[in-house]
Amino acid sequence: MESDFSSLSLSPELLAVVGELGYVHPTPIQRESVPVLLAGKDLVGQSKTGSGKTAAFALPILQRLDLSNRSVQALVLCPTRELSTQVAREIRGLGRRHAGLGVVELVGGQSARAQKDALGRGVHVAVGTPGRVLDLLQKRALAPGVIATVVLDEADRMLDMGFGTEVEAILRTLPQTRQTALFSATFPDTIAEMSQKYQRDAVRVTIDEAAGSALKIRELKLASSPNEKFHALCWLLNENPHESALIFCNFKATVVDLVRRFAKAGVSADRLDGDLEQFHRDQVLARFRNQSLRLLFATDVAGPHVISRAESSLELPIRSLDVLRLLECQVLQLLAQMSHFVGVVLFHSRPVGGLDRITRRRPRNSEDLVRVERLGVLRLAGVILPEARAR
């Protein structure tokens, strides 16, 4: 029998917010992690992206805050600015009944002065990327003395992106008595080494996908040169009839460019990325839900988090789509994560036989594919792209 949130020893304020958001049963990672973190223990949580990890650490953080002390008491590190924005937004949403709660984003690409001013006025939670957080620590704008909890969200991705040096420098700066939580979709040796070095008797929580929940996915690879990319995408969409298509890209600039090109051609297309305000995001999801929007382009970090959150809050019932086709338009940097990547969007969806994941790769990256196929992550069938027709 499934437990509900009241079994997690959460405060009445947090239980009220959880109810307002429509959550009834905690996800497995929440059910296993929240009690551990509330007890003040270190934790390594391994679960798919989109499985509710943010709430798993946000709820304990909020419950343990001393709101009368306007100093940073919890620090959350994220690999990207987009993910930092999503996490900060969710913490604010879950903490809506915490009067005077202060949450600041510490990320690059935004005014460091404004972030310093926010820290000077006093906040309770800081969410940011390793580079900017380390810079503010070194400049003494971010005081580490009261930080009781540090969370590394998407820790495997953060280390794979080369932030290991910055992350370790941050951890060395923080109080030794802190609580440290690592959340990750995978558990490579780098995570194990960091846990051994910077955690104390960490509790390991691993959520395995149910044996019967695996989807039948036909995975294809399509080699094309950069100037063929748009033609390749058009050909794939034409060859695979669809009601709705969700298309992930590595960069926001690519998302914006593709939306512009399809819209210019008269195709209904829009985007999801970390720069969109909540009102616009809700509008886009509503249009995609009712299928008035045919093509939805998203960044490979912001999109999955927005969509999985929308699914869990019943804003985007992905399970109602007959066929969902995932088209990766650019080389994904983290090949080892490609297996769980599809599960981000299909976390609550039913198995469908017609689901395709199509990966576009340039021939020079074929050795990467061979390496990943040997790891058992992917089994890709080749597809030859026809020559573009002369106009």
Query: Which residue ranges are poorly predicted, with pLDDT under 50 across at least 5 consecutive positions?
Result: 211-215, 308-326, 330-383
* CATH level 1 name of the largest domain: Alpha Beta
> Could you say which overall geometry the principal axes of the C-alpha atoms support?
globular
Q: Helix fraction?
A: 25-40%
Widest sheet, order of strands: 3-4-2-5-6-1-7
Give an overview in words.
There is one protein chain. By secondary structure, this protein is an alpha/beta fold. It has two domains: 5-206, P-loop containing nucleotide triphosphate hydrolases (Rossmann fold); 211-383, P-loop containing nucleotide triphosphate hydrolases (Rossmann fold, 3-Layer(aba) Sandwich), CATH 3.40.50.300. Helices cover 40% and strands 17% of the residues. The strands form two sheets. The protein has a seven-stranded parallel sheet with strand order 3-4-2-5-6-1-7, sandwiched between helices. Strand 3, helix 5 and strand 4 (125-128) form a beta-alpha-beta unit. The longest helix is centred in the N-terminal third of the chain and has 14 residues, at 81-94.
